[in-house]
Design brief:
The chain is mainly α. Helix content is 72%, strand content 0%. It is built from 15 helices and no strands. It is globular, with a radius of gyration of 21 Å.
């Protein structure tokens, strides 16, 4: 009865509670990213209980993109057997499962018309309010002589990825002026900030949007090649960068010297366990960067994580993990191609921005990072025409 009571208490898509939750999530995500990530996954977890209660486990068996996620969790859990920190590895794998399953539930539920009708305008309004609040707060902080805090940088990064599905939703609804205004507002906010990660992600996404609008077929083909290189080439090519330091532009070396040293060192460690890796979350306990080659401020530093998702997957889960990553990207690519054509440029813009962020920052397994990618993906799911959406209507049972 406890589960029944909990499911009954869940707010319905059109209820006041559900509308308030949807509208306030973007501002909270910008101003308090950690709290928003927790709220997102707790809410999705409760939704999972409702789906299981009313539909059983059939929706997950029918969703092809669930299997790569399950493979990632199982491989991560198995890696505890050879990890130097087995408890941390097992805990991270279980936490990953608790995050992935609710996110999959949201994608399964996304195709419902009621969710689409109620969530999209509120999500857009809440996100624009968040952008204004963030810019205002940044302006006040600068006037006081303060620099951007880490949470502020995360907030700007969230906006840089959030804007594409929202602009796509507005464009699809025929509100092109609002879509353009949203993109301009976030772009101006990103470039006015001190958050380099945010404005570069916005720039990369904007370039992809323009290319996809001007030459959609060619851009789709290039995107497919880039996704392949992301999963297959990049995790190994990063290890060559330290040897190329003298040939790289000095501005690039000055800006990314630390990353280059970290990538080169961790890539070398990856060759010691090439097939299955060191274990989930083992990056932070591996040997520090040795004092070899030209002097570097990062010699002797122990990297907590690689600051690059493909390299982190290769280092911690080996070639087996890269195969799972490729399967996840393939499932995502199939989903992109199934979206309405109008949305493809916006989807490619988000994909480009997300890949850029994943290549230079954040630990893949943190709650915020997964939230950063999964929340916009869920919004794209709201825009998809999914005839297999699960039933969330009260009083109906699929079993």
């Amino acid at each position: 009865m406890a589960v029944d009571d909990l499911v009954t208490a869940l707010p319905r898509p059109g209820s006041v509670a559900a509308r308030v939750a949807v509208a306030t999530l973007p501002p909270v995500a910008v101003l308090l990213p950690g709290l928003a990530a927790g709220a997102f996954f707790v809410g999705a977890g409760l939704l999972t209980l409702a789906v299981v209660r009313r539909n059983g486990f059939e929706p997950w068996r029918r969703a092809v993109w669930v299997w790569p996620g399950a493979a990632a969790v199982l491989l991560g859990l198995a890696s505890a057997a050879w990890s130097p920190v087995p408890e941390r590895t097992a805990t991270t794998a279980l936490n990953l499962a608790l995050l992935i399953v609710p996110a999959c539930t949201l994608l399964l539920a996304a195709g419902q018309e009621r969710l689409r009708d109620h969530a999209l305008p509120l999500w857009a309004a809440g996100g624009l309010a968040a952008a204004l609040a963030l810019v205002a707060g940044e302006t006040v902080a600068r006037a006081a002589g303060a620099s951007s805090a880490l949470a502020t940088v995360k907030g700007y990064t969230f906006l840089a990825l959030w804007v594409w599905p929202v602009a796509g939703a507005l464009w699809l609804a025929g509100r092109r002026h609002l879509a353009t205004a949203a993109m301009i507002a976030v772009t101006l906010a990103s470039f006015a900030s001190e958050a380099d990660l945010s404005w570069t992600a916005t720039l990369v996404g904007g370039i992809a949007l323009v290319c996809a609008a001007a030459a959609p077929v060619a851009t789709v083909r290039v995107a497919a090649l880039l996704l392949f290189a992301y999963a297959v080439v990049l995790p190994f090519a990063l290890g060559w960068l330290p040897a190329w330091k003298d040939d790289l532009p000095s501005a690039l070396v000055a800006a990314a010297s630390g990353r280059i040293d970290i990538w080169g060192h961790l890539s070398t460690l990856g060759w010691e366990r090439p097939v299955l890796g060191w274990g989930l979350q083992a990056s932070g306990v591996l040997p520090p960067i040795p004092a070899v080659g030209p002097p570097s401020a990062y010699h002797g530093v122990q990297a907590s994580y690689p600051h690059n998702v493909p390299l982190q997957v290769r280092l911690e889960l080996g070639i087996a993990g890269l195969a799972v990553l490729a399967a996840i990207l393939l499932a995502a690519w199939r989903a992109i191609r199934a979206l309405p054509r109008t949305l493809v440029p916006f989807t490619l813009a988000f994909t480009a921005g997300a890949l850029w962020v994943s290549c230079i920052s954040y630990n893949l397994w943190s709650d915020f990072t997964l939230f950063l990618y999964l929340m916009p993906i869920t919004l794209f799911g709201l825009l998809a025409d999914d005839g297999g959406a699960v039933d969330l209507a009260p009083g109906r049972h699929g079993r």
